[in-house]
Amino acid sequence: MGQREFVFPQWGGRREGAGRKKDRERRLLPYGARERFGWRTPVHVTLKLVDGLPSMRGNGVFGDLRGCIAAARERFDVRIVHFAVLGNHVHLIVEAVDALALGRAMKGLKVRMARCLNRGWRRVGRVWQDRYHAEVLRSPRQVLHAIRYVLHDARKHGVPLAGPVDPCSSGPWFPEVVERFGTPAEPAPVVEPRSPLLRSLWQRAERAPARARRPGA
User: Fold this and answer.
1) Rounded mean pLDDT for each run of 10 residues along the chain, 217 residues in total
2) CA distance 18 to 14
């Protein structure tokens, strides 16, 4: 009897879509070590939605999102001082004891907000892109610019506003706004700052004129 010949299936090889994904396809932000900081150093955090989702300012979901932020405003050694909800991203200015505490707090907040959005949009699936972006604010001028950026970002994006303050932000509870227009009926979804930079030092940068750049600098 002759030996029987076995035919083995061929696996692997070059095919479309196979292999390790390129970095730009796998993630938008690198998974490197976070910059170190302490509670005295505020952080500007940005969370972005995946593409193709509805606006977070419409469809009746903002009220629930504000509730999520209020519930997380002082948890895991992180305090939320300012926020703004835009169509496809959220800005936060926070105080945190360290990067580890900030990571835990943002993970919990993203889960809470994802559930809220999926429930409001009557869908299931992924909500947030990659990791959150964090900018450590180490000077009064950086803090001043971050506060202005967050509270006025809707106007920058061309969002029509009925008044001078973005209602989908913590602007209505900003001290200068409260002094001018009165305290909102809803309880504040943010907390008072404790770090010197967020409490008062940023106001020095507001009063001081910007330094002129030296030629060639």
Assistant:
1) 54 55 48 71 96 90 95 94 96 96 95 96 93 93 95 92 92 94 94 94 77 47
2) 7
CA distance 61 to 63: 6
pLDDT of residue 13: 54
Amino acid code (one letter) for 80: I
Locate the DSSP E strands across 73-211: 74-75, 78-85, 89-96, 133-136
2 CB neighbour count, 10 Å cutoff:
4
In one letter, which amino acid is 108? G
pTM for the model:
0.80
Question: How many alpha carbons fall within 13 Å on the CB side of residue 206?
Answer: 12
DSSP state letter for 51: T
- Which of the four CATH numbers 3.40.50.10610, 3.30.70.1290, 3.40.50.300, 3.40.50.150 does domain 36-207 have? 3.30.70.1290
**Single-letter code of the amino acid located at 170:** S
Measured from the Cβ of residue 196, the count of other Cβ atoms closer than 10 Å reads 12
